[in-house]
Amino acid sequence: MQKVLVTGAGSGIGKEFTKLYLQDGSAVLAVSLLQDELDRLPEDFRFGASRLQTLQMDLAKPDAAGALLQWCGENAWFPDVLINNAGFACFGEAVELPTERVADMLELNVITLTMTSMLFGREMKRRGHGRILNVGSTAGMVPSTRMAAYCASKSYVNSFTYALAAELKPYGVTVTCLTPGATQTKFAQAGGIDSFNGKSLLRTMFDKNKAGSPSEVARAGYDALSAGKTQARVGTGSTFAAVAARVVAQKRLPTLVKNP
Q1: Vertex 8 angle, CA 244 and 228, to 5°
Q2: Which among 31, 36, 58, 223 has the fewest CB atoms less than 10 Å away?
Q3: Residue 47 Ramachandran class (φ > 0 left, ψ -120 to 50 alpha, else beta)
């Protein structure tokens, strides 16, 4: 039976990934910061509850990737598929944001994702098989005001994942970068978008439920990973971001949208 590890599995895109893999008969280890979200998963996915295991862990802590690998080793639970989905944004002027919150975001979005990809990818390479999906973003294609550090973190994820895919391909390990546009999850709440008082296209989009569907985003990632593709681009604003990144100088991109 295929084993799948999903981070950020308690809600949104991660929860949809958990559902998809349980539906295809896989065993899933769902990892989340919030125990109450994990507690609801067996009830929500009764059809696959016997193949579902949950693990509460703060992946924004230093050496979280090492702790996760250690847990998997101690519990004989090494995954065939790793879904690096956990992440969040910090919305606001960069110099006005709480530095501790931004540091946690970078630890989770960049450091933990990198280390889990390396540590689990190293073992997959040794075994000669495995799949990794990293959730990047179209935000990583377009630098944006009010999301300077977040966009930079996702630009890193996109770039790192494409390079890792090329390195591991000769060893039977596929790596996919999922680059969704804005998606209707807890993203706005966690990032402070929903409480922003000024003009904001993003806040309006989330308030009016115009962002993309997490189920559609997860399905695109699931299909791309299954097909061994390097990228899956999907969701609201993804086409604009891809085109803008190609035709506009990067230094001018932050001024394209005046109220992101």
Answers
A1: 60
A2: 36
A3: alpha
